[in-house]
Amino acid sequence: MKAAVWHGGEDIRVEEAPEPRVGPDDVLIRVEYAGVCGSDLHLMDGWLIQPPAVLGHEFAGVVEAKGENVTVCIKGDRVVAHPLSSCGQCAYCRSGRQNLCRKPARVLSHGEGAFAEYTVVNARSVFVLPDSVGLSTAALVEPVSIAVHVTSLAGIQPGSFVVVFGAGTIGLLCLKMAKQAGARSVAVVEPCASRQDTALRLGADFAASPGEIKDLVDTATGGLGPDVCIEGVGAIAAVEQAIQLARPGGRVVIAGWSPPHATATVKPAYLFRQEIGIQGSFWSSYSAFGTAVDLVQAWGLELASMVTVFEGLGSLREAVALMRGREVIKPLIKIV
Ligand SMILES: [Zn+2]
Ligand SMILES: [Zn+2]
Fold it and tell me: Quick one: which of 20, 25, 5, 30 has its CA closest to 105?
């Protein structure tokens, strides 16, 4: 099969690669669309894995083959899959927290990813799509599932005032989820004017630069601050600003991947006195993934406005470059 292999730096080449082996509990999926994620760029920056590797963990496709134990799908089914094939045995898996699985069987973003004609996952992670969801929209199920997970950890209530840092894919989807959860107002912090416009179009009540947000939120909340801040950038400055901005008793959710060795400055006495909660949010559970399948069905057209489609595996290199330049929000590679 053909795969787009990352060889370090920005070097991605389409090459012949062995078709993945299908174990008795596995599903082989012919990938139709695969999204490029900010975390793929971080992997290419050397944050977690070494080349050569096939990246790509946001995808939708069609079942090509399955192992003898698999009953959740049949050949020809249109599917999405959580990119983390959990072990199904550990205490986290058994309590529905597959994102924290201690010994996953396979993690697509670690090198056997979806920027290829075929990818293989454990059947536990597979979700068959309703007929009404197109495969290009379905490739967004994974990032939507992250926003579902963030929102559940954020404790957003009807009437909450929420500030989201960053109008990239995760920030914009967290904005939509916060609205869905009943937030009375959602403000998006984003320096780039065109991304501010995208946030407003997707339902943000306010969009502001990092320098403007405090005055804006103070005015809107009578000086109290937001109930919830969601950091969707992975920027240390945004983490620190979110902690300062949250109201007494408020919560800060860290949903962005910051450089592995970067540190932020927090004053424990301030967290103590103001009862600020800090919550990490990593990937998503399988149940959040299932919720995301339902949501992409409802949100289809709005999600399409975030997407730029690139034709063929050979276009991955260009898609990555445009994403680094912040010229596109969510590139989708049409594999075939
Ligand atoms: Zn992703
Ligand atoms: Zn596990």
Answer: 25
Same domain, 173 and 236: yes
Q: How far is the CA of 271 from the centre of ligand 1 (A)?
A: 30
Whichever domain contains 229, its CATH number is 3.40.50.720
pLDDT at 109 over 80: no
Reported as a single tens digit per residue, the pLDDT across 139-153 is: 999 999 999 999 999
Ligand 2 centre from 104 Cα, in Å? 6
* Pair 124, 183 in one domain: no
Coarse DSSP helix, strand, coil percentages of the chain, rounded to the nearest 5 percent: 35, 25, 40
Judge if pTM exceeds 0.70. yes
Does 297 fall in a domain? no
- CA–centroid distance, 294 to ligand 2, in Å, is 25
- Give the domain CATH number at 18: 3.90.180.10
Q: How far is CA 277 from the centre of its chain?
A: 22
What pLDDT does 135 receive? Answer: 96
Distance 139 CA to ligand 1 centre (A): 10
Residue with tokens 């299908």: 22
Mean pLDDT over 187-192 rounds to 97
Give the pLDDT confidence score for residue 9 in this predicted structure. Answer: 97
CA of 96 to the centre of ligand 2 (A): 9
Q: Whole domain around residue 103: which residue ranges?
A: 2-140+306-334
Contact in structure between 286 and 142 (CB atoms under 8 Å)? no
Q: In which residue are the tokens 């990555």 written?
A: 320
The CA 206 to ligand 1 mean position distance, Å, reads 26
* Residue 311 maps to a domain: yes
Based on the fold, state whether residues 47 and 78 are members of the same structural domain: yes
Ligand nearest to the Cα of 286, by number: 2
Count: domains in the chain = 2
Task: Compute, in angstroms, the gap from residue 223 CA to the centroid of ligand 1.
Answer: 35
* Residue pLDDT, tens place only, 294-328: 999 999 888 988 999 999 999 999 999 999 999 99
Question: How far does the centroid of ligand 2 lie from the alpha carbon of residue 82, in Å?
Answer: 14
